[in-house]
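A quick aside before the break. I want you to see a complete sequence-to-structure record at least once, exactly as it would be stored in a machine-readable document. Don't worry about memorizing anything.
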Amino acid sequence: MNNYQIQKDRKGFIMPFATEQDAVDWADSYFVDGYTVTDLGPVIEPTESEKLEARQSFGKELLNEYILDNDQIAKNRGYPFTIEETVQQATKFQLVLGILPLGSLLQTLAVIEATPTDTIFTQERKDKYIAKLNQFLSTQ
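That is the input. The structure line, written in tokens, reads:
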């Protein structure tokens, strides 16, 4: 399997395909005409260390997003979380906060799926984090 760069004007993709013809077929279906396909060589599998680093990085990004989402909720309400709300959220996510930066994403997904929603951790937020985790895990 090789990576192919498919480019038309300023829009481009780098994607893996089994053959150059597969890349051309995909480009035909997306761009129709006026594109270029360049073989970039074999897909190089990341090392276990690189995979772990990617999981840890993703975990930190998701954690930061969670914190920013909380900040936005507080701003939208016009006041910070109460002590009770802060304790409730910290208690609810104690396990997630501990394992997420370690790259334990399957465990994080299981915990988030089992976490009940409330006025701060809404179903919409829960669905967003589950979707992001599933998307990342599908690429690993």
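Two observations worth writing down. The chain has two domains: 2-42, 48-138. The beta strands are 2-8, 11-17, 36-42. We'll return to this after the break.
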